[in-house]
Write a structure and sequence with these properties.
Helix content is about 0%, strand content about 50%. The chain is mainly beta and about 190 residues long. The chain has three domains: about 60 residues, Roll (SH3 type barrels), CATH 2.30.30; about 60 residues, OB fold (Dihydrolipoamide Acetyltransferase, E2P); about 55 residues, Beta Barrel (OB fold (Dihydrolipoamide Acetyltransferase, E2P)), CATH 2.40.50. A six-stranded antiparallel beta sheet has the order 1-6-2-3-4-5, with no helix packed on it. It has a five-stranded antiparallel beta sheet with strand order 9-8-7-10-11.
């Protein structure tokens, strides 16, 4: 068993019989009172965020999670299908595990999938991806200095707000965590 001193952001622990991932941990020592750890954690199964106080030195059950590289293949309407790059075994993963970044997945993209035994419990997508703009309002000459934005549809079907100078056929870099436009990629 581990103690609260082992709590770090990104660690998985079993709390109330369910698997949680720590998103925030703060050690507090309020004046004359005993020290405690304030933890904010996300339930892996349903995505709910839970806050809890742990007494300093309290025992917690940390869970060892295996990380493996997988390659994204396709979306079948219900789940996203990935292939193990070593054994070529294919597994379906739900959108709840992938999060909001799932709409920016492009075929052939390498993703790190986390497993608790044989069950996928999380995935770490690349921080940014390069996508081709397939549909947007044409840019007007001289709009490069204007800070306005317009919606653009990228090759994965997701909508991204881009600067006015971006045209159809341009390749842009998009942040998978926020869905924000980062820059135009020179080819």
């Amino acid at each position: 068993m581990a103690t609260t001193a082992d709590l770090k952001v990104g660690v998985f622990l079993r709390f109330n019989g369910e698997l949680h991932m720590l998103e925030e941990v703060v050690h507090r020592t309020p004046g004359n009172l005993r020290a405690f750890y304030q933890a904010k954690m996300r339930n892996v199964r349903n995505g709910r965020v839970l806050e809890n106080r742990f007494r300093s030195g309290e025992e917690v059950e940390l869970v060892r999670v295996e990380h493996k590289q997988y390659q994204y293949l396709f979306h079948d309407g219900q789940s996203y299908n990935f292939m193990d790059q070593e054994s070529y075994e294919q597994i379906p993963i739900g959108e709840k595990i992938l999060g909001e970044g799932a709409k920016f997945l492009k075929e052939g993209l390498s993703v790190e999938v986390m497993f608790d035994g044989t069950d996928p419990v999380g995935a770490e997508l690349p921080f940014n991806v390069e996508l081709k703009v397939i549909e947007t309002v044409p840019g007007v000459r001289g709009d490069t200095a204007n800070p306005g934005t317009k919606p653009a549809k990228v090759e994965t079907g997701a909508m991204v707000n881009v600067p006015l100078f971006i045209n159809e056929g341009d390749v842009i870099r998009v942040d998978t965590r926020t869905g924000a436009y980062l820059e135009r990629v020179k080819q």
